[in-house]
């Protein structure tokens, strides 16, 4: 039996090209990526919302036409949870330093309704820019690499952070939570809360973005899921 396809869903501010180093560690795997509308390279007034992200993820998975494993990073877990509920082809969800929200919860609501200091919020134009990404997202990368990664970020739709889930796929789909122990983007209590929701937790000695700093280690974990071996 062939291995399931692997769908990689990026987080806020990012572009799908961020997965390049990780994909290079996954030869022989059918890897699919997606550009979420909420952070697409378009004028800020054309950015999509969370529900458009969820629909895009859902369409991609259904178009594959076979079994899939989905790895969602950071905000990517929100549209994955919303869009992939009750889809039998999804064999496993991997939430990589990701938000595991429940029905009725939103990204901003999960933060108590307050904007974190690394969000540069433009209320009039309804978008957010990322501030200090080198220290928040990439704090285990050499300075030059962290700056290069940060330079690839773009604006994020503000409304996508306010929209609540209407469904939560992790309630019915086997799921794993991956905690980066040096993640400066998600506070430790939040990470532990999300891990407890899923019950199945893996830990890595990494920042928020192990696909940059530890691509081989991240790939090994995903291969375990793809081949059906139990995650430790």
Automatic annotation (TrEMBL):
Molecular functions (GO terms): hydrolase activity
UniProt organism field: Streptomyces liangshanensis
Keyword Zinc-finger: no
Name of the protein in question: Alpha/beta hydrolase
This protein's record includes keyword Oxidoreductase: no
SUPFAM superfamilies: alpha/beta-Hydrolases (SSF53474)
PANTHER family, sorted: AB HYDROLASE-1 DOMAIN-CONTAINING PROTEIN-RELATED (PTHR37017), ESTERASE_LIPASE_THIOESTERASE DOMAIN-CONTAINING PROTEIN (PTHR37017:SF11)
InterPro entries reported for this sequence: AB_hydrolase_1, AB_hydrolase_fold, Sec-Metab_Biosynth_Hydrolase
Top-level taxonomy: Bacteria, Bacillati, Actinomycetota, Actinomycetes, Kitasatosporales
Keywords: Hydrolase
Annotated ranges, domain AB hydrolase-1: 6-220
